[in-house]
Amino acid sequence: MTQLDIIQPNNPTLRKRARPVTRFDDSVQELIDNMIETMRAASGVGLAAPQVNQSLRLAVIETPPDFDQEGQEIEDSRELFVIINPEITWKSRKMVDGIEGCLSIPGYVGEVSRHEAVRVQALDRRGKKLNLRLKDWTARIFQHEIDHLNGVLYIDRLTDPENFWTEEAFQKQFADDDEEQPIVIEAD
Question: Tell me, what CATH number does 123's domain have?
Fold first, then answer.
């Protein structure tokens, strides 16, 4: 497997609606494997094909791990999804603000309002239909990755332009808060 280059917003591929995947041949399987390796190497939880300069409606997502009472990662608690030609078929009315990052915008985070729950129809890596009911952080990650397939970046959905920080400034700003510190996810 090969780690792929992750493009940044100055590349026009990130701003275009990606093309549907119509073949599930070896080249697509190789792309999927390389995207999974690239996402993991970058410590991301999702990666869309446009982020590796491939205008295809394809994304890989790996949910964050669960932790035990001692704070140790629970083995095999992450779930890996490959979604092809995904469509959000239902969105909850309830919106939830959360902090997001993106592998295509390294070093920055921002507050984005997303639907608390969504339903997604897609195909898996072999072309089999998936019907997924998602909520909380997993729903957020799916919405973020599907946005990429439509040429939308999280910075387009900020709750306010002021709610965009460098990772360092964000950590400093919220380090002294009495409230629980927001969780930052690298959605890509």
Answer: 3.90.45.10
Three-class secondary structure of residue 33 per DSSP: helix
The answer to whether residue 127 sits within a structural domain is: yes
The model's pLDDT over 18-64, given as tens digits with 9 standing for 90+, comes to: 999 999 999 999 999 999 999 999 999 999 999 999 999 999 999 88
SS3 113: strand
Q: Is 145 a catalytic residue?
A: yes
Contact 1, 65 (CB under 8 A): no
Report strand pairing: 95-101 vs 108-115: antiparallel
| Nearest-angstrom CA–CA distance, 64 and 73 | 10
Give the confidence band of 178 by pLDDT, cuts at 50, 70, 90.
very low
- Which of the residues 75, 87, 100, 145 is marked catalytic? 145
Residue-number span of the structural domain to which 27 is assigned: 12-186
